[in-house]
Every structure is written in C-alpha cells, then in structure tokens.
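Reminder to self: tokens first, then the designed residues, so the page reads top to bottom the way the pipeline ran.
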C-alpha cells in the first residue's frame, strides 16, 4: 500500500512537469529569442504589408480623442443616445467602479485599501474636456494602466458620456430636477 502511495505521489509530481504538458513542451518561439524558422531570425513578426489596425478604420478624432490641432476634444464625437449611455453604464460598472466607485466619487473597497495612491474621485475633474477622459482610458494615467485592450474606442466614448451623466447627477439639487422626475424621486424616497 505504501509503495502504491509513493508511486501515485511520483506520478502526481511528474504530472505537474513540462514533459506532460503539451502546451509548455510544444515547439514555439519566445518573443525576444532568435528564430530558426525565419530567414531574418527575428521571432516577433511585423504586421503583414497592408494590415489595418482595428482603430485605424475609425476617424482619427474618434480613435485618439484629439482634434486636428492635437488638443483633447471638448465633446464626445459620436452621437449621444440613450443606448450609448446605457452601454457606458455597464462598461463603467464593470471596468471602473471597482476602483473609482459606482458614483465615480472615489468610494470603493479598492480605494479604502490602496494606501499609497488611492483611485481618486472623478467628480472633481468635471472641467476637463471629454477627450481627456478618453485619453486617460486609452493611454493610462500614472499608476492606472491603459484600458485600450479591454475597451473598444466606442466603449471608451460611452464611458465618457456616462461619466458626464454621473458628474451631473452628483452636483445637482433635487429642486433643479424636472417636475416629473422630482415627483417620482420624492415618491420613491418616502
Ligand atoms: C485598479 C484600479 C483602477 C481602475 C479599475 C480604474 N482606475 Fe482610473 N485611476 C486609478 C488610480 C490609482 C488613479 C490615479 C493614478 C495616479 O495619479 O497615478 C486613476 C486615475 C484616473 C483618472 C485621472 C483622475 C484625476 O483626477 O487625476 C481618470 C479620469 C480615471 N482614472 C478614469 C478611469 C476610468 C474611466 C476607468 C474605467 C475604464 C478607470 N479609471 C479604471 C485606478 C483605477
């Protein structure tokens, strides 16, 4: 019995090794290693001639958040629709709220536990142009990484639009609401 257990343990150990993992032991090139396959011996291949990046098919302003003068766009350059705002809400809740809070007010579990540089409230920067928020998401900001690979440019603009709605919602008093909305809110609050 003891021998059997030992044998089982040995198999389990070996099982964790490269020899049994086809993904690890398969032939492949590592990014900076020399390649024996390509004549120029470079493993990282350049894009094929004529290859178009997904973002290149968009108008430059939509893809970069900058106008022809290189400055951040003042306004979201895609049509503002309810669908865009709803998309922005789901994308914000999934990608940003964990750090910046669901109201973008900087109140989140991560912020409470990140001692050195907690994610700030995004309500305090309402004066920044829309294109700036787009750039922060596209390029990263300080210790915050870029979200370009997680969010399409459309999603990033949707988040900017929703962020504007959040900023508005957090800087208004109930008296400023349209009468219908005010009545509804008062009813819900009771
Ligand atoms: C993992 C946590 C985290 C997530 C997720 C995150 N951020 Fe940030 N964000 C930060 C931190 C930390 C900073 C401050 C970075 C610094 O100053 O170095 C920051 C800074 C910013 C700033 C600049 C704020 C200012 O006033 O200077 C903006 C705008 C911003 N984030 C927007 C977003 C948006 C939009 C998303 C979602 C796509 C997002 N962030 C997701 C952590 C996060």
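Designed residues (190 positions):
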């Amino acid at each position: 019995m003891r021998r059997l257990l030992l044998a089982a343990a040995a198999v389990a150990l070996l099982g964790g090794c490269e020899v049994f993992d086809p993904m690890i032991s398969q032939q492949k090139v590592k990014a900076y290693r020399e390649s024996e396959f390509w004549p120029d011996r470079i493993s990282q291949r350049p894009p094929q001639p004529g290859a178009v990046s997904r973002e290149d098919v968009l108008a430059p302003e939509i893809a970069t958040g900058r106008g022809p003068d290189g400055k951040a766009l003042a306004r979201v350059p895609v049509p503002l629709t309810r669908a865009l705002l709803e998309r922005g809400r789901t994308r914000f809740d999934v990608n940003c709220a964990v750090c910046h809070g669901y109201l973008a007010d900087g109140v989140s579990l991560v912020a409470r536990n990140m001692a050195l540089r907690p994610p700030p409230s995004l309500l305090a920067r309402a004066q920044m142009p829309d294109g700036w928020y787009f750039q922060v998401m596209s390029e990263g900001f300080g210790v915050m990484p870029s979200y370009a690979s997680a969010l399409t440019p459309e999603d990033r603009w949707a988040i900017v639009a929703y962020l504007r709605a959040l900023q508005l919602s957090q800087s208004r008093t109930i008296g400023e609401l349209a009468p219908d909305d005010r009545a509804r809110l008062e009813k819900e609050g009771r």
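The first helix runs from residue 2 to 15.
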